[in-house]
Structures are given as structure tokens and as C-alpha cells.
Amino acid sequence: ARLHERAARSQEAVRASRREAGECRRQLQARLVEMESLRGAHQSLERQLQELEERHNAEAAGLQDTIGQLEDDLRNTKNEMARHLREYQDLLNVKMALDIEIAAYRKLLEGEETLFNMGSGGLTSLNSLPSPTYSFQPRSFSSST
Predict the structure, then answer these.
(1) Would you state the pLDDT for residue 121?
(2) What are the helix (H) ranges across 120-128?
(3) What whole-number distance in Å separates Cα of residue 96 and Cα of residue 92?
(4) CA distances from 34 to 21, 46, 52, 87 (A)
(5) Cα(31)–Cα(25) distance, rounded to whole angstroms?
(6) What is the mean pLDDT of residues 107-124?
(7) Contact, 123 vs 76, CB < 8 A?
(8) How far apart are CA 32 and CA 38, in angstroms?
(9) For a surface tag, which of 8, 31, 139, 142 has the fewest beta carbons within 10 Å of its beta carbon?
(10) What is the pLDDT of residue 122?
(11) This prediction's pTM
């Protein structure tokens, strides 16, 4: 009877152990499925991260190219502005030289008019002539730039 009782308890313990082992297998299977799912999600996130890095690198390279082009444009614009400034300075120097030359001719003409008016004071017929008109013929200057 004791043996039967022990056998019954042992069978009950075996059944409980089997139920517990089955439950552990189900939990293990659920964890394995969850782990595979997480592994897939991890791989997907890794691919997305790699794609984002590639896109970022391509965008950064494009921006670097744009920066390089803008720097070249800025350098060219500065050179062009410097060239225009040199041309302007050259023209300003020519203008100043022409102004000085015109002032000198004006003084000469005023001096000759004064001499002419003083020397021909007795000739009234010459005073009735119209005053002389002077025309300016601009010279053509080329810039060395």
C-alpha cells in the first residue's frame, strides 16, 4: 500500500513535472519566436541606419560640392571686382589728367583772349565777331588690364 501510495505520488510528481516541462517548452518557444522577431527588427534597423548614413554622406558630399562652387564663385567675383576697381582707377586717373589738361588749356585760352582783347582795343570790328567755340575731341585710352 505504501508502495502504491509512493508510486501514485511519484506519478503525480511526474505529471506535474511534465506539465511544468511543457509550460517551459511553450515559454521557450515563445521566447525563441520573440528573439527571432527582435533579431529581424534589429537587422531592419541596422539597414535603415546604414541607408541613413549613406544618404547623409551623399548629402554632405553634395553640400561640400556646393560650398566649393560658392567659394569659387566668390573668388571669381572678388577677382572681377578687383579688375573693375583697377579699370575704374585707370579711368579716374585718365579723367584727372584730362581735367588738368583742360584747365591748362583754359588758362592758356583766357590768357590769349586777354592779350587779344588788349592788343586789339582799337579795332572795334573784331570785337563784333562771335566768341570762339571750343570743341573737345576725347582721346581713346585702353586699359592695360
Answers:
(1) 58
(2) 124-127
(3) 6
(4) 19, 18, 26, 78
(5) 10
(6) 76
(7) no
(8) 10
(9) 142
(10) 47
(11) 0.49
d(CA 74, CA 95): 31
> Cell numbers 541613413 label which residue?
52
d(CA 145, CA 122): 56
Query: What is the chain's mean pLDDT, rounded?
Result: 86
pLDDT in tens, 17-51: 999 999 999 999 999 999 999 999 999 999 999 99
Structural contact between residues 83 and 145, judged by C-beta atoms closer than 8 angstroms: yes
| Alpha carbons 112 and 118: distance in angstroms, whole number | 10
Question: ∠ CA 115-120-123 to the nearest 5 degrees?
Answer: 165
Identify whether the C-beta of residue 126 lies closer than 8 Å to the C-beta of residue 120.
Answer: yes
Task: Give the Cα separation of 64 and 53 in Å (integer).
Answer: 16
Q: Per-residue b/e over 61-82, b at no fewer than 16 CB within 10 Å? A: eeeeeeeeeeeeeeeeeeeeee
DSSP H stretches of helix in 1-145:
2-119, 124-127
